[in-house]
Amino acid sequence: MAYGYITELNENVTREHVRYNNRYGIAIAADIYKHKDLDETKKYPALIVGAPYGGVKEQGPCVYANELAQRGFVALTFDQVHMGESGGEPRNISSPELFAESFSAAVDYLGVKVPYVDREKIGVIGICSSGGFALSAASVDVRIKAVATTSMYDISDIRGMMNLTKEQIDGMKRQLADQRWKDFEDGQQQYVPSFPEIPYPSVDALPETDPITNEWNRFYAVPRGHHSNARGGFTTTSSLAMMQFKCLDYIDEISPRPILFVAGDHAHSRSFSEKAYEKAAEPKELYIVPDAEHIDLYDQVDKIPFDKLEGFFKENLK
């Protein structure tokens, strides 16, 4: 299981691969990280770390889990259903309901199958779009005691994110409806990956595109963050699900459980954290990381505020 992880496992941390089913019976592939000297006769707080949209556990989540396990947490990372090593057919389908459910499925597993986890002390961290899915899960799953998001994206805000007019929304619906007919005729769903099967050798070799695409490529399309299970994007008609489901409709119901929003000071996604912060009820905190863009909080350990995350969860998982 060592192949493909974007960071080296710390010598004081162990990683175990596990599998379990969500409540729909779909298998989820996950990794559990813990300090090698952890006394398994005792119970510890646990953190569930969700990957960015289209990402896998071998990317940003392994960076977080590797660090947080050194700090006394049991950390679980996972591949979303229909992604990576998890089950679900067809592949590369995006479902906000199922993606939120994956956080609760991890709570199920940790609380029942891992004897050294204190089931009353489970928190979640959502990186990028997993921030929205984690908040959605926590809005109904009271077993999640604290939530942190980093470089949050609300993928379900497709209308606001793309600043669509009513005419554009109607046109998108028509195109997606037509694609459904074509998918059915073809016997498979259209999927167009965003990133190459083989990474570019360096950032200097990347093609020039728009600034945001350039940023994604500087992580996913080069050795820094490339993984063969994370080619980017989802089936074309997955956008229909995002037009039906709003991750943050009930964010205020997470209270009195706390939320920490972490965003880079010049991240293109910063507004998502700010909007979610405004919608959330107390207790909540918006923490801005200086000199950080969106992808810096995926893997740059000198910029990810691990001291802040450690303090937040140790205080709120007491």
How are the SSEs ordered, and which strands pair?
Blueprint: E1 13-21, E2 27-35, E3 44-50, H1 60-70, E4 74-78, H2 96-113, E5 117-127, H3 130-140, E6 146-150, H4 158-162, H5 166-186, H6 211-220, H7 238-242, E7 259-264, H8 270-279, E8 284-289, H9 296-299, H10 306-316
Parallel strand pairs: 3-4, 3-5, 5-6, 6-7, 7-8
Antiparallel strand pairs: 1-2, 2-4
Helix pairs in contact: 2-3
Question: What does the model show?
Answer:
The protein has 10 helices and 8 strands. With 318 residues, the protein is an alpha/beta fold. α3 links the parallel β5 (117-127) and β6. It has a domain at 13-156 and 245-316: Rossmann fold (3-Layer(aba) Sandwich), CATH 3.40.50.1820. The chain has helices at residues 60-70, 96-113, 130-140, 158-162, 166-186, 211-220, 238-242, 270-279, 296-299, 306-316; strands spanning 13-21, 27-35, 44-50, 74-78, 117-127, 146-150, 259-264, 284-289. α2 packs across α3 (130-140). It starts with 12 loop residues before the first strand and ends with a helix. It is 33% helix and 18% strand. The chain has an 8-stranded mixed beta sheet with strand order 1-2-4-3-5-6-7-8, with helices on both faces. The radius of gyration is 19 Å and the shape is globular.
